[in-house]
Amino acid sequence: MLAPLAPLAQAAGAAVLVNDPRVAGRIKGDGLHVRASGDALEPALEEAAESMRPDRIVGAGLLRSRHDAMTAGEADVDYICFGEPSPDGWRPDIADTLERVSWWADVFNVPCVGFAGTLEEAVQIAEAGADFVALGDAIWSHPRGPKAAMEEAAALIAKARRIPSS
């Protein structure tokens, strides 16, 4: 199902990241998004690095603590992500995500992604210093559709960062 969409996304300038190394290879994806924390984090990142490096991206998500984030950063990931939902749908409180994004952006050089459930959260995450904002259901549930959601989000984020929107 993802295979026909990957080239379209890549042609539009988006990186296609998945959370299964076999799928990443099969669809010629750009990399792997590792979703692990605690004791499972280091082995998962090592396996991802072995299968993806040097040509593909390895990022880390589902980071539940500052320690997890620093462990991922030390593993030489290409980005870390705060605030994404777990497989069972639980998502950290936005205040916790904002705190982690701000802390990471102030201290570390590895790019930071903040997960936003709404367009309002996207603005807050941009203001907190995230390098990238990941939009979940806010894209698909927008009353005017995904394209309008992306355009609105880009304009709001640009305004929050005080940069000209395109």
What is shown here, in short?
By secondary structure, this protein is of the alpha/beta class. 47% of the residues lie in helices and 15% in strands.
List the helices and strands and how they pair.
Blueprint: H1 5-11, E1 17-18, H2 21-26, E2 31-35, H3 41-52, E3 57-61, H4 66-74, E4 79-82, H5 94-107, E5 112-116, H6 119-128, E6 132-135, H7 137-140, H8 146-161
Parallel strand pairs: 1-2, 2-3, 3-4, 4-5, 5-6
Molecular structure report:
- Helix 5 runs parallel beside helix 6 and helix 6 (119-128) packs parallel to helix 8.
- The longest helix has 16 residues, at 146-161.
- The chain has helices at 5-11, 21-26, 41-52, 66-74, 94-107, 119-128, 137-140, 146-161; strands at residues 17-18, 31-35, 57-61, 79-82, 112-116, 132-135.
- The protein has 8 helices and 6 strands.
- Strands 1-2-3-4-5-6 form a 6-stranded parallel sheet.
- The chain is of the alpha/beta class and 166 residues long.
Contiguous low-pLDDT stretches (5 residues minimum) are none
- Secondary-structure element pattern, one letter each: HEHEHEHEHEHEHH
Q: What topology, given as strand order, has the largest sheet?
A: 1-2-3-4-5-6
* Principal-axis shape: globular
Q: Output the structural class.
A: alpha/beta
**End-to-end distance:** 31 Å
Number of helices: 8
What is Rg? 16 Å
Helix content: 40-55%
Mean pLDDT, as a whole number?
92
Tell me what portion of residues adopts beta-strand conformation.
15-25%
Main sheet?
6 strands, parallel
Total number of beta strands? 6
Essential attributes:
six-stranded parallel sheet; alpha/beta; 47% helix; 166 residues; 6 strands
